[in-house]
Amino acid sequence: MPGTPPTRFVYLGPEGTFAEQALRTIPAAEHGSRTPARSVGEALESVRAGEADSALVPLENSIGGAVGVTLDELAEGEPLVITREVILPVEFVLGARPGTEPDAIGTVAAHPQASTQCRNWLRANLPDAVVVDVLSNGAAAAGAAAGEYDAAICAPIGATRHRLAVLADKIADHPDAVTRFALVSRPG
Fold first, then answer.
1. CB 93 within 8 A of CB 159
2. What are the structural domains, with CATH classification, of the chain?
3. What string of H, E and C letters represents the secondary structure of the chain?
4. Closest by Cα among 87, 93, 102, 89 to 156
5. Distance CA 141, CA 164 (A)
6. For residue 177, how many other CB atoms are within 10 A of its CB?
7. Which has the closest alpha carbon to 69: 40, 37, 36, 112?
8. pLDDT tens per residue, the chain (188 residues)?
C-alpha cells in the first residue's frame, strides 16, 4: 500500500556486516524484520518479487569507489527507487576469541577490501600473520568465533554479534573512510 512504512528489510549479509550496521541506523528497520541476503542481486530481487519492502545495498566507498555490482543490478530488472541513503563511517576492529593474546595470532580472516584498507596497521602490528581472504566482514568474524582463524578484521557489529574480544579498534589506514548505502523499494 503506498505510503505504508516498510517493515520487511533485506540487506547484504551475512549478519555482522557494515550493511547490517547501516540498516540498524534506520528506525523502521530496528522494529521491522531484517533478513541477510547472499548477494546484492538476491537482496534486490527479494524487493522486486515482493518478499521484502526494502533492501539496503552499498553504493560507494570513499576509498574503493563505486560498488559496480550494485550499480549493474540496479540498472537491470524492474525499476527500483532510492528512498533513503545512509552514510556509515568504516571503522574496522581486530576481533578474536576472548583470551587470545596478540602475539599468538597466526591467521587473520578479512574481506579483501578490509585487509587492503588496514594494510599499514597489519604490517606494523601483525607482520607475521597470514591474512586469509573471506567473502565478507561478517564471515571473517564468524570464522574467528568458530576457531577457523585466530582473529578477524571486521565491523564492530560483527565483533559484538559473534562475541569476539576487540583487541584493537580503529585500525583502518584511512580513519575518515565512509560507505554510502542506499535503501531501495519498488516505485509507488
1. yes
2. 8-89+177-185 (3.40.190.10), 93-169 (3.40.190.10)
3. CCCCCCCEEEEECCCCCHHHHHHCCCHHHHHCEEEEECCHHHHHHHHHCCCCCEEEEEEEECCCEECHHHHHHHHCCCCCEEEEEEEEECCCEEEECCCCCHHHCCEEEECHHHHHHCHHHHHHHCCCCEEEECCCHHHHHHHHHCCCCCEEEECHHHHHHCCCEEEEECCCCCCCCEEEEEEEECCC
4. 93
5. 8
6. 17
7. 40
8. 456 677 999 999 888 888 999 999 999 998 899 999 999 999 999 999 999 999 999 999 898 888 888 999 999 889 999 999 999 999 999 999 999 999 999 999 999 989 999 999 999 999 999 999 999 999 999 999 999 999 999 999 999 999 999 999 999 999 899 999 999 999 98
C-alpha cell recorded at residue 44: 534486490
Note the pTM of the prediction, 2 decimals: 0.82
Position 112, amino acid:
P
